[in-house]
Specification:
With 199 residues, the protein is mostly helical. It contains 9 helices and no strands. Helix 1 packs antiparallel against helix 5. The mean pLDDT is 91.
Length: 199
């Protein structure tokens, strides 16, 4: 799918003679980072004895995870597409968004497997929906307030001030819930399909 997405971008650039939408490559790269982090965390058994390292990696993972689902909001750029490229751009951005969502859901599933090493399944009832809501809030911070994941380090004062102010507004909560529920439904669907195939 990644190759297919790149192929679509190259075709568009060749036909239109511009590299508009190439930012999707960067967005997809950011979307893959949390999955790679979680695979690393889950496969390195020696890390399990180092709680500080676990918390650090999980913290970075959580900061980058919303990027996996953020790409769906890049559909907003369709407003800049003309009639000759609109439908092509729709399929192009949708393809990138699909890959981002798939990788993001898989990343949550890997995190779930990691959690179950230390805790029982009951904790998932609280943790997973919370993560999905936080991803929705992360999308809000990125799309509406235009923050990036690395602002946690480069601009923490303004970021956390805005987080405190935004979390008490109805608009923010509804936006976050909307995307959080969407992510959770995709997560649940993927889990059901996976379990069905396993059986």
């Amino acid at each position: 799918m990644c190759i297919y997405c790149l192929f679509l971008l190259i075709i568009r650039a060749t036909i239109t003679q511009n590299i508009y939408l190439f930012f999707l490559i960067w967005n997809l790269f950011l979307a893959i980072i949390p999955y790679v982090l979680m695979i690393y965390l889950r496969t390195q058994e020696n890390i399990r004895k180092n709680k500080i390292k676990i918390y650090l990696i999980v913290g970075i993972w959580l900061a980058f995870l919303p990027n996996s689902f953020y790409i769906i909001t890049d559909l907003i750029h369709l407003s800049l597409s003309d009639s000759s490229t609109f439908w092509y751009d729709l399929s192009l951005i949708s393809s990138f968004a699909f890959v981002g969502f798939f990788v993001g859901i898989q990343s949550i599933l890997e995190f779930e497997k990691f959690l179950l090493i230390f805790y029982n399944e009951k904790i998932l009832i609280i943790i997973i929906p919370t993560i999905c809501f936080l991803c929705g809030f992360g999308i809000y911070l990125g799309r509406i307030l235009r923050y990036n994941s690395w602002d946690v380090l480069t601009n923490p004062k303004h970021l956390f001030l805005d987080i405190g102010l935004q979390l008490i507004t109805t608009k923010t909560i509804l936006f976050s819930l909307h995307f959080g529920i969407l992510i959770y439904l995709f997560y649940t669907s993927k889990k059901i399909i996976f379990n069905t195939k396993s059986n």
